[in-house]
Design brief:
The chain is mainly α. Helices cover 52% and strands 8% of the residues. It folds into 2 domains: 138 residues, Rna Polymerase Sigma Factor, Chain: A, CATH 1.10.1740; 58 residues, Arc Repressor Mutant, subunit A (Orthogonal Bundle). It contains 8 helices and 3 strands. Strands 1-2-3 form a 3-stranded antiparallel β-sheet. It is elongated, with a radius of gyration of 20 Å. The N terminus is likely disordered.
Length: 222
Amino acid sequence: MQFGRRIRTVPENSLFQTDSENREGSHLSDEELVLLAKNGDTTAIELLVNRYKNFVRARSKSYFLVGADREDLIQEGMIGLYKAILSFNASRNVSFKTFAELCVTRHIISAVKMSTRQKHMPLNSYISLNKTDTGMDYIEYSGYSVEKSESNPEQIMIEKEDIIGIEGQIDKALSAFEAEVLMYYLSGMSYGRIAVCMNRDVKSVDNALQRIKRKLEKVLSR
């Protein structure tokens, strides 16, 4: 589902009657907006997407996935958010925020796992980059099972197992140039922007990222 601007028919009982009144819904809680969205109020969906789009983008940038495209991850995250809106159950003792964040993360990881299987890649895992205010903190390695319960996403714990010194292994595998390229890439920079920052041409950056992907794949498949 695309979450762009769309022409819509607003129900008579909608809390969002006109375009000029759309932003009035900002005072409603997530849970109230979800209820409206389930009753067909597309403006409520747009407001929820607007509230969570930055989270989706940030979460998609937290994963460096061999062979995956960043925009694809953002789209998968949006699909996860949409599913969270449709399946949220207010009677459970969990906030929509918690539920949505789990659904978004889970959908991103599940999509990547499926992609790696289809491409016959040896890597069936992901790298999560955790950052502090000063930059890179640590990189953790984790497995994830897509066979876990579909009906209770809020109960799913994304396992953080085996923080096994991957950062040290990667430091040894990458050259100083490659490590710097990776840092910029994980921050969301385009190839062109990285090239400007490092005073290199785009081809050099692209070649470095291809080497990085091969090296990371080798490190994580050990």
